Amino acid sequence: MKPAEILTYIRNVPDFPKEGILFKDITTALKEPKVFKAIIDNLAELVENMPIDNIVAIESRGFLFGAPLAYKMGVGLVIIRKPGKLPADIYREEYSLEYGTDALEMHKDSLKKDENVLIIDDLLATGGTAEAACRLVNKTGANVVASLFLIELTNLSKNAKLSAPIYSLIKC
Ligand code: AMP
Questions:
Q1: Taking 80 as the threshold, does the pLDDT of residue 55 lie above it?
Q2: Which atom of ligand 1 is least distant from the CA of 23?
Q3: 127 C-alpha to center of ligand 1: Å?
Q4: DSSP the chain
Q5: 125 C-alpha to center of ligand 1: Å?
Q6: Predicted confidence (pLDDT) at residue 98 exceeds the cutoff of 90
């Protein structure tokens, strides 16, 4: 299945979570076995030649793609979580969203210096979330090789300042 067909399974929800946001709802794609499989297979193809030690997935929808992709690629999985969820020593980074502000946290010992990392999330909009994730990874001394997204909103991402190359399956 090609990315253009995958896009037809992603539902557009106007004015969620607030007026003016067109929310890309991936639940309608994930519930279809052939679409979920195609998403993971296509994402794996995009990054197949990268020297990756760990996938770093961003809570929460990044987990849905990061976990199966790490399993398929045979690499480790590290999770970046919303505040207050991780039990051990953490690094913390503030960031701004397309709708609001928030913070992300990662365990200090989750990555080693010079490890190569692929950051993954469901969607790239302004890039604030992914850049906060890059900053967290950099604090550990690991390298962000690339960031990977199922969907890229090109109107917003054109102004994104990400310190690593961007790979996305569906641009809209
Ligand atoms: P940003 O930091 O602006 O790149 O926003 C990306 C994050 O916000 C991702 O974790 C997305 O899940 C979420 N997000 C932002 N805009 C949308 C949207 N239009 N539809 C679905 N999720 C979105």
A1: yes
A2: 20
A3: 8
A4: --HHHHHTTSEEEET-SSTT-EEEETHHHHTSHHHHHHHHHHHHHHTTTS--SEEEEETTHHHHHHHHHHHHHT-EEEEEB-TT---S-EEEEEEEETTEEEEEEEETTSS-TT-EEEEEEEEESSSHHHHHHHHHHHHHT-EEEEEEEEEE-HHHHTT---SS-EEEEEE-
A5: 5
A6: no
